[in-house]
Each structure stands twice: as C-alpha cells, then as structure tokens.
Amino acid sequence: MITHVGTVSVFVRNQDRAKTFYTDVLGMKLRMDVPLYPGAATRWISVVPASAETEIILYLPDANWTHYKETIGQAQALTLSVDDIAMTHRALQEKGVHFVQEPKTEAWGTFAAIEDSEGNRLLLVQAAS
User: Fold this and answer.
1) Beta carbons within 8 Å of 82's beta carbon, 6+ residues apart
2) How high is the pLDDT of residue 96?
3) Element (DSSP H or E) covering residue 9
4) 78: closest CA among 57, 105, 98, 103?
5) pTM confidence score
6) pLDDT computed for residue 38 by the predictor
C-alpha cells in the first residue's frame, strides 16, 4: 500500500542559493545535502517543513533532465500549507520574499503566491476552518 508522498522536486538554477532560501528564509529543515552520485557536480539537496514527511528536492537539471530546465522560474505544482497566512505573509515580507499574489480568501481557504530564489512561484495556503 502507498503510505505517503516521499519527495517532490523543485527545479533550480543554483542549488546553494535555493538551499539558503528554503532553509533560512522559509524556515525548512535541511534533510540531506550530498553529491547526486560519486564525482557529481550536482547534489541531492532535500528540505522539509518541520512537521512534514514529504521532502522537497532542490534539483539542478542535468543532461538527463534537460526538459525540466524550462520549468525553472514558472509556477510550480507545489502548495505549502500554513497555519496563519496573515502572520506568514508579514514574516516573509520582512525577509524580502516577493509575493506575486497577496493573500486572497476563497471558500476553500486563503492563499498567496510567492517567488523563490529561482523565480519559481509557490502557493501558500491556509485551509478554511
């Protein structure tokens, strides 16, 4: 049986810059930072929100994944759940995070969209109570 989602990938141009953004700015924990394979210039960098099981891989597309290079700097199919979107909005603005969509309330919850260090757009969502 499938038990949970293990990883999702966010494709990046600069792994060090992305690692700093996801850990220092978004406050995620670094789970792993190792060479992708022996002698590789790229790394397997995974970060995770404090209470999550699913890891986000900050993946630098190589020759085997060139088709993903076009997704860098685009809207990603990744939603980050937050418990207080107003507080999260203020805290991230103070850290200089660019919001491409200010918080907006819908019947299903309140959402905002941010840009990461690579220009990828991510959704922040607080579910309706």
Assistant:
1) 88, 124, 125, 126
2) 97
3) strand 7-11
4) 57
5) 0.91
6) 92
